[in-house]
Amino acid sequence: MLLTYLEAIRQGIWEEMDRDPTVFCLGEDIGIYGGAFKVTDGFIDRFGPERVIDTPIAESAIVGAAFGASLTGMRPVAEFQFMDFIGCAFNQISNMVAKTHYLWGAPAPLVLRGPSGGYVHGGPFHSQNPEMWFVHNPGLKVICPATPYDAKGLIKAAIRDNNPCIFFEHKYLYRRIKGEVPADDYVVPIGKARLAREGRDLSIITYAAMVNTALEAAEVLKNDGIDLEILDLRTVSPLDREAIAQTVKKTNKVIILHEHSRTGGLAGEIAAIINEEAFDDLDGPILRIAGLDSAIPFSPPQEEYYLPKVSDVVREARKLEAY
Amino acid sequence: MNKKTKSKSGSNGNRPHNGASRPKSPLLVKNARNGAPASSPKNNDTSLRTYSIPDLRLEHPNLSVHQSIEKDKDGAEHVRYEVTGNLDAPVPAIRDSQYLDKKQCIEIYRYMLLNRKMEVALENLYKQGKVVGGVYFGLGQEACSCASAYALDKDDWFAPMIRNQGSLLVRGFGASDVMMQYMAKADSPTRGRDGTSHFGDIEKRNMVSPISMLGDLIPVMAGVALGARLQERDIAVMTYIGDGGQSTGVTYEGINFAAVQNLGLVLIVESNLWAYSTPSEMQYRCRDLAERAIGYGIPGIIVDGTDACQVYDGAREAVERARRGEGPTLIEAKMMRMKGHAIHDAAAYVPKPMFDFWKKRDPIARFENYLVKEKKWLNAKENADLISEVERVIEAEREIAVNSPMPTPESAEGGVFCEEGCHEIKPKYGMPKVKKRTGGFKETDAAVHLK
After folding, report:
1. CA dihedral of residues A233, A238, A241, A242 (deg, nearest 10)
2. Size of interface A-B (CB pairs under 8 A)
3. Listed residue (B304, B339, B273) closest to B139, CA to CA
4. CA–CA gap between residue B258 and residue B241 (Å, rounded)
5. pTM of the entire structure?
6. Residue B441 — pLDDT band, cuts 50, 70, 90?
7. A52 Cβ partners below 8 Å, 6+ apart?
8. Which residues in chain A are contacts of B427 at CB distance < 8 A?
9. How many C-beta neighbours within 10 Å does residue B405 have?
10. Fewer CB atoms inside 10 Å of the end CB: C or N, chain B?
11. Which residues in chain A touch residue B219, judged by CB atoms under 8 angstroms apart?
């Protein structure tokens, strides 16, 4: 069936709650209201207020409570109204949840999920992509799907995983993209990238909303005779090193594209992986396209300037192809 | 800096009391939440609000700490802490417990001895250079650690703070576990990966490991109670916070979450007067931290943290409330940290008369006196035998700990994730019963924020 990205996530959580009585949801305004973006719309009627819990505005308490419940064998799915607010719970995630298995052997099967990303003029506190805060936190799995199929398969995989998973839903994609999603139960494995487009000339390594940006750029570049390969990481921690190396070995030229700020961003890490795994295969410098090193501005012309766009990819690809 | 000439009027509990609102009975205000619909944990019946704080103490110390300027012999000025109040007040009696019998009192006393002698052994291990890092002591707080944890049942959960090493012993960990943690040994509960009381056990002893950041355990323990409730079990979840740690925002979030969700949190607020080097006068302004309970809409109670019977009675009633599904309780236990923050800290900033005052209130000496002289539940020989038995236990545990090897360097690797087959996740108290409701899945087309 054809589903939006948002419906795919909704269906994924719904099916897991139906399948497994240990799954429950907590977060702000997720009950009768159904969540700020309506991901849990109708859940409280189906699963009851015991399993769809409206919480105080207290992100550390939400994460703490989810973690505590997970220690008793539950599988909590905690919603952040916007992923920007995950910073309010940073200590709980970084020092409590992420370290627990390594330090004292307690598994914490919980999911922290919510909308992230720009392109909707949300301003500096409703547009961020804070995934890198957690990539640099061993013990967490960080998932950023780009398609309805992956969104559903990965949210189900995250709920079934025995580890803390942070699931970034790109809010620009929520209702803008539709995709074919099978009616049958399926999961998408965490930590595996996929080729969003096969090509021979140049690789774009990216994820989430930027996959579509790259795909659009590929259509433009086709007219130049440049055949883009697009690797959708799907999971940014752990990274699929093998898939990264493979695409570089195939096309020998690579651009890394992400929405968050350039400095300390994922591109730096991926460039290092390429150095380690495929240095001899490179026929040009590793390029990166990223957000500016500032907060994300509010006004549409400023936001557009800040964020990567199709024309950036086209320009950088032509430059690299000519190298 | 000007010398402060008077102390703040509202501050920690070692101030004169308005005794009028202090019921003599240890009974908490009854909070009957029976019949509250599951969908609405918040019950607005105002009779549930607790506007008075029971106080079990038999004395109300009126000491207060403020900064003052002292001149040394060369005329140079130094800022110091100074204590004022009645430093010669007589030591009160132990308050008879409403619940504990002779055997239980002696058992708690034994745990307190184990706690203290384990810490003496740790101090010696430190002096012998066998400890990695520092040692944290619960000296003066043994009654609070041991008698509170003693109120828990097997199915209840707890999470200690750094000074609650006695609680660990009550829950069945060996002194060697704690010693090996301090020595960073391969057989320590964290296999060398963390020290001190930073370890846990979700299988047998239902203990959540603390982290160094204060207050984060409170919502975690509320979540443990939430998990159990979803499995249709009301349990008590006990944890601790100091008068320093309670200043953190997550403390508020956690207690409030437990209150709103009516979860069986038993929070022992250990008012031990010093947070590292900062006196409680500089942490908060209310008279008693137990008063905070009023703001959360939950019962609060004050106990003398150096009186094991009071601590137990307060904890026991809170634990029973929790198990009846009646929500959280805040227990403020008043006492003093009788050493520095850790072994490196001589606590020179603490005015000496305060040490003298609280030394007279040593929880073990008081309880020993109670059991041997007042109750005559132990004669001198039995007491001496008990003490030497505890010393033998600690010596044997010390041997185990010292003989454990250091971990291999490579053991730093692995275990970041729960891999396939590493742990089986299953509900601790049974699979939640799911009430199937009628709502079916339909696509949502509601209006949203930021299209």
Report:
1. -80
2. 219
3. B339
4. 15
5. 0.92
6. confident
7. A24, A25, A26, A30, A31, A40, A43, A44
8. 22, 72-74
9. 9
10. N
11. 58, 60-65, 68, 92
Residue type, A281: D
Phi, psi dihedrals of residue B274, rounded to the nearest 5°: -130, 125
Question: B49: which residues sit within 8 A by CB, 6+ positions away?
Answer: B294, B297
What's the token pair of residue B15?
């101030």
Beta carbons of A101 and A67 less than 8 angstroms apart:
no
Residue A233, judged by CB atoms within 10 A of its CB (0-12, 13-18, 19+), counts as: buried
Which tokens hold the place of A138? 């061993």
The Cα–Cα gap between A289 and A266 comes to 11
Q: Which residue of B has its CA nearest to A81?
A: B449
pLDDT digits (tens, 9 = 90+) for A88-105: 999 999 999 999 999 999
Cα–Cα distance measured from residue A29 to residue A222, given in angstroms and rounded to the nearest whole number: 46
pLDDT digits (tens, 9 = 90+) for A4-30: 999 999 999 999 999 999 999 999 999
Angle between helices B142-150 and B308-323 (to 10 degrees): 30
The number of beta carbons lying within 10 Å of the beta carbon of residue B346 is 9
Backbone angles phi, psi at B405, to 5 degrees: -75, 165
- Best of A20, A26, A57, A60 to mutate (most B CBs within 10 Å, chain B): A60
The answer to whether B87 touches B64, Cβ cutoff 8 Å, is no
Helix%, strand%, coil% for chain B, nearest 5: 35, 10, 55
- Name, in order, each residue with C-beta under 8 angstroms of A89's C-beta and a sequence gap of 6 or more: A59, A60, A62, A63, A64, A80, A112
Q: Do A163 and B448 touch (CB under 8 A)?
A: no
Map residue B73 onto helix, strand or coil. Answer: coil
Determine if residue B421 is left, alpha or beta; phi over 0 gives left, psi from -120 to 50 gives alpha, anything else beta.
Answer: left
A170 assigned to active site: no
State whether residue A27 is helix, strand or coil. Answer: strand
According to DSSP, the β-strands at A235-237 and A254-261 are unpaired
Do residues B329 and B298 touch, judged by C-beta distance below 8 A? yes
In a 10 Å sphere around its CB, with 0-12 CB exposed, 13-18 middle and 19+ buried, how is residue A95 labelled?
middle
The distance between the two most distant Cα atoms of chain A, rounded to a whole number of Å, is 60
For B86-145, give the DSSP string: -TTPPPPPPPPPSS--HHHHHHHHHHHHHHHHHHHHHHHHHHTT-SSS-----TT-HHHH
Instruction: For A122, list phi and psi in degrees, rounded to 5.
Output: -85, -10
Collect all residues with Cβ–Cβ distance below 8 Å to B53 and sequence separation of at least 6: B21, B22, B288, B290, B291, B293, B294, B300, B301, B302
Angle (nearest 5°) at CA A225 between A221 and A228: 55
Inter-chain contact A71–B426, Cβ cutoff 8 Å? no
Residue B405 DSSP code: P
CB atoms within 10 A of CB A21: 18
Chain B contact set for A97 (CB, 8 A): none
Average pLDDT of the segment spanning A49-62: 98
User: How many CB atoms lie under 10 A from the CB of residue B344?
Assistant: 10
C-alpha distance from residue B192 to each of B137, B160, B405, B411 (Å): 20, 19, 10, 9
Q: Complex ipTM above 0.95?
A: yes
d(CA A246, CA B20): 78
pLDDT tens for each residue of B270-284: 999 999 999 999 999
Please tell me if residue A183 touches chain B, with a CB cutoff of 8 Å. Answer: no
How many whole angstroms separate alpha carbon B199 and alpha carbon B203? 13
Partners of B218 on chain A (C-beta within 8 Å) are 64
Q: What's the CA gap between B421 and B419, in Å, rounded?
A: 6
Catalytically annotated residue among B292, B341, B361, B398: B341
Beta strands B300-304; A287-291: pairing state:
unpaired
